[in-house]
Write a structure and sequence with these properties.
The structure holds 2 protein chains of 2 kinds.
Chain A (H helix, E strand, L loop, with lengths): L23 E10 L2 E11 L4 E5 L6 H8 L7 E6 L2 E2 L5 H7 L1 E3 L12 H8 L8 H6 L2 H18 L17 H14 L4 E5 L7 H18 L2 E5 L3 H7 L2 E6 L2 E6 L1 H5 L2 H8 L2
Parallel strand pairs in A: 3-8, 3-9, 6-7, 7-8
Antiparallel strand pairs in A: 1-2, 1-4, 4-5, 9-10
Helix pairs in contact in A: 3-5, 3-6
Chain B lengths: L7 H26 L4 H27 L6 H20 L5 H27 L5 H19 L1 E6 L2 E6 L10 E5 L13 H19 L2 H11 L1 H6 L4 H24 L12 H14 L4 H17 L7 H17 L1 H26 L1
Antiparallel strand pairs in B: 1-2, 1-3
Helix pairs in contact in B: 1-6, 2-6, 2-9, 2-10, 2-11, 3-4, 3-5, 3-9, 4-9, 6-9, 7-9, 10-11
The chains are: A alpha/beta, B mainly alpha.
C-alpha cells in the first residue's frame, strides 16, 4: 500500500533555501522486510543548498534510508520527490542520473583501478562517445578522454589528491579512500550528495579538515548534502538541520541546538 | 610518441603487439629455413585459434570477472555457420583470403547473436550459477550441431534436424550430423591467424582503455558502486559477453578451416576447460599471459609426443608447477628480488660507463 500523493511535509528549511523547490522531499517513506518495519513514516525535506544530518543509534535504519533514497531497495511506502520529480519506479541508475550520488559506509571503490579511473567512472555519463568510437580511437575519443582526464584531476584537487591519480585505489590509506569516494560521487554532478559516515575512522584533525571540505563542496558546487554521522562534533558543527532516527522512526527534527537539547534524543541516543 | 610519454598500460600493450609480431616474423623465417617440423607447422593455425579463444575468454573471465564454461560453444556456433558459408563461396570463387574473411565475419556475427541470446537470460546470474548455465549452454550447442544436417546442391541449401531428410540429386553434404563438417574448404593460413590475433588484441586493448572498458572493470570490482554512479550494469555485461562470443566464433572458423573434417564434439566441455586453463595460467586480465600460456600449452603436448606414455603426466606436472610458480608469494618475491638485483647491477654498470 503505497501512498503516492505528496502530503505537505513538516520539515523546515533554512532561510536561504525558502522559496525554492527543496532538492529532496520524502514523505511517509517506509520499507518492510517481511513484516519488520525497518523504516517507517519517514518525512524529511532538504533545501537546495542545505547541509543536513541524519543521526541515531546503531541499527536505527539510517543506512536503510540512504538505500531507499538511492533505490538500492524499493520503498514499500511513501514518495520521494527529487527536485520536484517523483522517483517512483526509478532504479538505482536512473536515480543517480536524476541527481542523487552517495558514498558507502563500508567503502566501495573500484579497488583494482587507478584513482583517476575511479573518478572517470563517476564522469561516465558525462563522457560522450560511443563504444565503437572508443575501439576505433576516433577523434571524439581523444577529445573526450582529454576533457575527462582534466576534469578528473580538477575534481581530485578538491581534496588535494591530484598526485595520487595513478595509484591503485585499493592501495590508498583509509582516509584517502573515503575522500576518493566523495570525489567519485561528486563527479556524477549530483544535486544531492549522500555521505554515509564520512568521518568514520578519521582522527580529530582529519575530521576537522573534512568539515571544512564538506562546507567547501557545498559552496563551490551549490548542492545539498545529507550525511549520516556518529561524530556529534562534526554533525553539530556543519549541519544546518538534523533529523534523529530511532527504531526506524524520526524522533526529533530541528536545528542542532534544538536536537541536542531534546529530552527524547538525549534518552535514546546521546545519553544523559 | 616515445616510450617515456606513454603511460604504463599503453607501453604494456605495445610490448604485447611487438611480441606477437616478432614471434610471427621468427616463425616465418624458420619456416623459410625449413627448420620447423611439418607436425609443428600443422599446429600453427590451431595455436592462433587458441590464442584468440584465450584472449576472448579473458575478456569475460578476467576483465568482466564472470566465469564462463561454455566458450567452446561459441567457437562451435561460429565454426559451423562460417564453414557452411565458406563451402558455398568456394563453389563460386577461388580467392581463399576472401572466402576466409567473409566466413569469419559470418561466424563472428552468428556467434555474437548466439552470445546475445544466451547472455540476456544468463547474465542476470553471477558466480557459480552463471558458470553452470554456460556449461549447459555449451553442451546444448554441441547437441544441436551433432544432429544437424545441411546439404548444398544446385537449388540451394537444405537443412534438417535430428533425422537426415535432406534429399539431393547431385549435391554435397556440408554438415552430416554426428560426422560433422565433411567437406571443409581448407582456406585457413598462419598469416590469417596472425592478423586475427592482432585485430582481436586491438579491439580488446582499445575497449579496455575506453569508457566502456572502465565500466566493465567497474562491474567486476564493485557492482553496487557501479550502479551508484549511474553505470548500466546489464548493458556492459552483455557487451563484454557478446564481443567475447564474436571473437570465439571467428577463432572457430579459423580453427576449422585448417582441417578437412571436424566433428561437433571437438568443441566440447574439455575444450572450454582447456581454454580456461590458458586464461587462468596466463593470469586473469593479462592478455600477454594468455597468449604465452596458449602457445606453450599447445606446443608442449606435440613436443612431448616422443615420451608418448608419460606425455599427459609431464603436461600435468607442468600445469601444477606453473600454477604454483605464478601464485606463490615467496617465489614471486624471490624472482622480483633477483630481477631487481640484476637491474641494479645493470644500472650501476651503466652509471660507471657514463662516468
Amino acid at each position: 500500500m503505497s501512498k503516492l500523493v505528496p502530503i505537505p511535509s513538516t520539515g523546515f528549511l533554512n532561510e536561504r533555501d525558502i522559496g525554492q523547490t527543496p532538492v529532496l522531499e520524502a514523505t511517509h517513506l517506509g520499507i518492510e522486510f517481511g513484516g519488520l518495519k525497518a523504516v517507517d513514516d519517514f518525512n524529511l525535506t532538504v533545501g537546495r543548498t542545505e547541509i543536513a544530518g541524519l543521526i541515531g543509534p546503531n541499527g536505527a535504519g539510517k543506512t536503510t534510508v540512504f538505500n531507499l533514497l538511492t533505490k538500492v531497495y524499493q520503498p514499500t511506502h511513501g514518495t520521494i520527490l527529487l527536485d520536484g520529480i517523483d522517483t517512483h519506479g526509478m532504479n538505482a541508475i536512473q536515480v543517480n542520473k536524476a541527481g542523487i550520488a552517495r558514498t558507502f559506509q563500508n567503502i566501495r571503490l573500484f579497488s583494482s583501478l587507478s584513482v583517476e579511473d575511479n573518478v572517470k567512472l563517476g564522469l561516465h555519463n558525462h563522457t560522450h562517445y560511443s563504444t565503437l568510437e572508443g575501439i576505433l580511437r576516433l577523434p571524439r575519443y581523444w577529445q573526450e578522454e582529454k576533457r575527462t582526464h582534466e576534469r578528473a584531476l580538477e575534481l581530485l584537487s578538491i581534496f588535494d589528491m591530484q598526485h595520487l591519480a595513478n595509484h591503485k585505489a585499493g592501495s590508498l590509506p583509509y582516509g584517502a579512500q573515503r575522500r576518493l569516494e566523495i570525489v567519485r560521487a561528486l563527479a556524477t554532478e549530483p544535486k544531492l550528495l549522500l555521505l554515509d559516515e564520512p568521518a568514520a575512522g578519521m582522527n580529530p584533525s582529519e575530521t576537522e579538515e573534512l568539515m571544512e571540505n564538506i562546507r567547501k563542496i557545498r559552496d563551490t558546487f551549490q548542492i545539498a548534502i545529507l550525511l549520516i554521522e556518529h561524530d556529534m562534533q562534526l554533525v553539530t558543527g556543519i549541519c544546518e538541520g538534523i533529523a534523529v532516527l530511532n527504531y526506524g522512526k524520526i524522533i526529533a527534527k530541528g536545528t542542532p541546538k534544538e536536537v541536542i537539547n531534546n529530552p527524547d534524543v538525549i534518552r535514546s541516543y546521546l545519553g544523559e | 610518441m616515445s616510450l617515456k610519454i606513454m603511460n604504463k598500460t599503453t607501453r604494456s600493450n605495445m610490448i604485447t603487439y611487438a611480441m606477437v609480431i616478432i614471434a610471427f616474423v621468427i616463425v616465418q623465417v624458420l619456416i623459410g629455413n625449413g627448420s620447423i617440423s611439418s607436425r609443428l607447422q600443422g599446429q600453427l593455425v590451431p595455436i592462433c585459434a587458441y590464442i584468440v579463444m584465450a584472449i576472448s575468454l579473458n575478456l569475460t573471465v578476467g576483465v568482466l570477472g564472470e566465469l564462463s564454461l561454455g566458450h567452446a560453444g561459441f567457437m562451435s556456433a561460429g565454426a559451423f555457420s562460417g564453414i557452411v558459408v565458406a563451402s558455398c563461396l568456394s563453389q563460386n570463387t577461388d580467392n581463399e583470403p576472401l572466402i576466409l574473411v567473409i566466413s569469419m565475419i559470418v561466424g563472428g556475427v552468428v556467434a555474437a547473436i548466439v552470445g546475445f541470446l544466451v547472455g540476456v537470460p544468463v547474465l542476470r546470474l553471477s558466480g557459480d550459477y552463471l558458470a553452470i548455465v554456460t556449461l549447459a549452454f555449451g553442451e546444448i550447442i554441441k547437441g544441436i550441431v551433432n544432429n544437424l544436417y545441411v546439404g548444398l546442391d544446385g537449388s540451394g541449401l537444405h537443412v534438417s534436424l535430428i533425422k537426415n531428410t535432406v534429399e539431393m540429386t547431385d549435391g554435397t553434404m556440408l554438415i552430416n550430423g554426428p560426422m560433422g563438417l565433411t567437406t571443409i574448404p581448407r582456406v585457413a593460413s598462419f598469416t590469417a591467424g596472425f592478423i586475427l590475433i592482432l585485430v582481436c588484441l586491438f579491439v580488446i586493448f582499445n575497449l579496455v582503455n575506453s569508457k566502456s572498458g572502465r565500466a566493465i572493470m567497474a562491474l567486476r570490482d564493485n557492482r553496487i558502486a557501479a550502479q551508484s554512479v549511474g553505470i548500466n550494469v546489464t548493458n556492459y555485461k552483455l557487451m563484454a559477453f557478446v564481443i567475447s562470443a564474436a571473437m570465439a566464433g571467428m577463432a572457430g572458423v579459423l580453427f576449422t578451416a585448417n582441417f578437412s573434417t571436424v566433428v561437433a564434439s571437438k568443441f566440447d566441455f574439455n575444450t572450454s576447460i582447456l581454454i580456461l586453463v590458458f586464461v587462468v595460467l596466463g593470469g586473469l586480465g593479462n592478455m600477454r599471459g594468455s597468449i604465452i600460456a596458449a602457445t606453450v600449452l599447445t606446443v608442449l603436448p606435440e613436443v612431448l609426443r616422443s615420451f608418448s606414455d608419460y606425455r599427459m603426466l609431464v603436461y600435468a606436472i607442468v600445469l601444477i608447477v606453473m600454477m604454483l610458480a605464478t601464485n606463490n608469494p615467496t617465489l614471486k618475491q624471490g624472482i622480483s628480488m633477483i630481477i631487481s638485483k640484476l637491474k641494479g647491477k645493470n644500472s650501476a654498470k651503466g652509471g660507471s660507463a657514463n662516468v
